[in-house]
Write a structure and sequence with these properties.
Helices cover 58% and strands 0% of the residues. With 154 residues, it is mainly α. The chain has one domain: Up-down Bundle (Four Helix Bundle (Hemerythrin (Met), subunit A)). The chain is globular and about 50 Å long.
């Protein structure tokens, strides 16, 4: 079962799969201007979606490891405001996503397969957390693909 989860994590993030574009593929080659574009006032940019995805990879890894909050490199949680059209920040945000993914994958790889269904809290098991973060990556990959198509410059 652990090998299946690791395969799904890989396919949802950066490996080829039948479902099409994965999360990392959805931002490949994207310029910082495109990443910062918003479909409307109060709507999230692709760059904000990327940092949001990084945060939840961190949060799942932290919960799997039983760690306390507070070690995410950015202040806040869930959604993070990003500066407009900054190439260096965009590169840093992509690196953050990769770093959080690698840490998550390592944590999942270190799980005891016999404990995947054991409750971490009343309603959450390692299996539900891992399945959820896989779905989260795919959901946001699709969202990013849609945001790219909505951009007037494309």
């Amino acid at each position: 079962m652990l090998n299946v989860l690791l395969t799904q994590i890989d396919q949802a993030y950066d490996r080829r799969s039948w479902h099409g574009t994965n999360l990392k593929g959805s931002v490949r080659g994207l310029a910082h201007i495109e990443a910062a574009w918003r479909p409307g006032p109060g709507r999230h940019s692709i760059q904000e979606v990327v940092v949001h995805a990084a945060y939840w990879k961190y949060a799942v890894r932290r919960r799997l490891a039983g760690e306390k909050r507070g070690s995410f490199p950015l202040r806040g949680s869930n959604w993070f405001a990003r500066p407009q059209a900054d190439a260096a920040q965009w590169r840093d945000d992509l690196r953050l996503l990769d770093d959080c993914h690698r840490s998550l994958r390592a944590a999942v790889g270190g799980l005891d397969p016999d404990r995947l269904g054991a409750p971490l809290t009343q309603a959450v098991t390692p299996l539900t957390l891992v399945a959820g973060i896989i779905a989260h990556d795919l959901y946001h990959a699709g969202q990013i693909q849609l945001l790219k198509r909505l951009q007037p410059s494309r």
